[in-house]
Amino acid sequence: MATIKEIGNATVFQQLITSVAADKLVVIDFYATWCGPCKMISPFMAQLAGRYRHVQFAKLDVDKVKDVATLCKVTAMPTFQFYKGGKKVAELKGANPTQLEQYVKEHQGGSDGASSSSSSSGGNAFAGAPGHSDLTDIITPNQMDALNQQEEHNVKNLFKKDDSYLESDVDEQLIISVPFNQPVKLHSLKFKVPDIAKAPKTIKIFANRQNLGFEDADSIKETQTLVLEPKDFEEDAVVNLRFVKFQNIVNIVLFVADNQEKEETTAIQQLTFIGSTVESTNMGDLKKMGEEE
């Protein structure tokens, strides 16, 4: 079983980044025990260690090894630093699973026992959305919901990379609720549809709303309304959001009011949220629990 090395002092840190082979990647997770995002991404870090066994993964508690955290100029948690041959080759601030794995893929070098699969939607693969990535990995699947969905063609199909799809039931309208397991900034959406005639047309988007019904969707002011055209479903197309309105999102609701050609039902094969995580806890802005009297 792959292990994640715990760095307990500066000597261990220096030995780790300098003693391994020059082409071997070392990934260090700078964390704090009181940091919520650190706890959320920790299981994913363990998954990566199991998949990329030729990469050395390590953790460093910034409160216990302050001298190394200061030396490495770590100011927010979690921060991930990537080393090769004793030199830092990349850094990631924030608990962004997709971007973390993308950096591992980019800098991993050899592939002894590594996962050979690659995500076509990871990293900065979206034209027009530099610095943003696919947020699918931080959606909470068991809390997703859709109103007026068919039992077989349900909302969970939206985030599968196959031919399954979501389809409305008694009419063309849908309400799709998507929760994230940490705050995110949403830049844009990407749609894939099985049938352009049944593709959504008018979509009202509600930021940080939960338990929204069809009557609510008509009476509550939406954060943004999209009116989609056939070109918005082309392979390389993304639909931009008003980024300033989607800066600290934990739940998003999409009300699909109609479809492109007034078909009886609406169908969506894949829905991709493109954005980034809200950068995690800043040491200067947060007091550790226990310091307050």
Automatic annotation (TrEMBL):
It holds the Pfam family Thioredoxin. The keyword Zinc-finger does not apply. Gene3D superfamilies: Glutaredoxin, PITH domain. GO terms for cellular component: cytoplasm. Residues 1-109 form the Thioredoxin domain. Keywords: Disulfide bond. Transmembrane segments: none annotated. Residues 105-138 are annotated as: Disordered. Residues 124-293 form the PITH domain. Residues 113-131 have a biased composition (Low complexity). This is PITH domain-containing protein. It comes from Absidia glauca (Pin mould). The lineage of its organism: Eukaryota, Fungi, Fungi incertae sedis, Mucoromycota, Mucoromycotina. The gene is ABSGL_04825.1 scaffold 6035.
